[in-house]
Design brief:
By secondary structure, the protein is mostly beta strands. The protein has one domain. The chain has one helix and seven strands; from the N terminus they run H-E-E-E-E-E-E-E. Strand 1 and strand 2 form a beta hairpin. It is globular. It starts with a helix and ends with a strand. This is Phage head-tail joining protein domain-containing protein.
Amino acid sequence: MGNLIDNAIAAAHASLASVAGRVITYRRGSTTVSIEDALIGESRFEVVEASGFHSETVSRDYLIPAAELAGLAPAEPREGDQIEEQVGGERRVYEVMRPGPGQTAWRYRDAARAQLRIHTKHVQTVEVE
């Protein structure tokens, strides 16, 4: 059982997810996990190339309860995993990846490690009939 702050964060996430959450499919190889309450966000990262050139990269982030990936081994996001989201008549596919050098593909969103923030990039759009 978490402390009061952890419990309040979990309750706030659950409340927001019930209103703004999206259904996604998390895919690792042939294994899929349906997640009913993913929240969508974005992160901006400054990338400094070896040449000294500065650029900004933006990732589409999926915020999900860590327990949703319990059926995967390991039960943490991995680079190359994919997240599929149905938007209108399209299925959009996003790949889990590091947004830049020195960055990680995901991180815990809270001190209790109950929530994940997964960084992705759009890799494919498929028309759904």
